[in-house]
Design goal:
Length: 149
């Protein structure tokens, strides 16, 4: 087995978990007829987990190489910022009547990225729990929304 293959396999599992959880949320959004659905959420979760896993690797290499700096908080911050632009695009593409739309879709994209980050650092229980909470907000609490204008 090539050097690092076991570590890569463990990190790949993190990506699979993130993509699977994100797919579940994306499926829910798809069923609700939202513009950002299955594939979009999968890609967001996968990318967030991959960037985070790469940040973890950078930290490990920085510990072994004096002078190399790596900051996992900056990785998380960058993912959140990038996803904010994606969510902003979803909102900006909304209705032209002056009322913002797609706010929940933008928020679900943002939350899916956070789930990907949790999976990317190997906190599977946290990632699954956050996904369950996300489903509760998107499906159960949707019953309490006020009617649209």
């Amino acid at each position: 087995m090539p050097p690092g293959a076991a570590e890569d396999a463990a990190l790949l599992l993190r990506l699979v978990v993130a993509a699977t959880l994100a797919a579940a949320v994306g499926w829910e959004r798809e069923q609700a007829g939202k513009s950002a659905g299955f594939r979009t959420h999968m890609l967001v979760g996968l990318a967030a987990a991959l960037y985070t896993a790469l940040g973890v690797l950078a930290m490990e290499h920085a510990a072994a190489a004096p002078g190399l700096r790596a900051d996992p908080i900056r990785v998380i911050q960058s993912v959140a910022l990038g996803i904010g632009f994606l969510g902003g695009g979803a909102i900006a593409a909304s209705r032209s009547d002056g009322h913002p739309a797609h706010l929940t879709t933008a928020a679900s994209i943002w939350t899916t990225a956070a789930v990907g980050i949790a999976a990317g650092v190997g906190h599977y229980v946290l990632a699954v729990g956050a996904t369950v909470l996300q489903f509760i907000v998107l499906r159960v609490l949707a019953r309490f929304d006020s009617p649209r204008r």
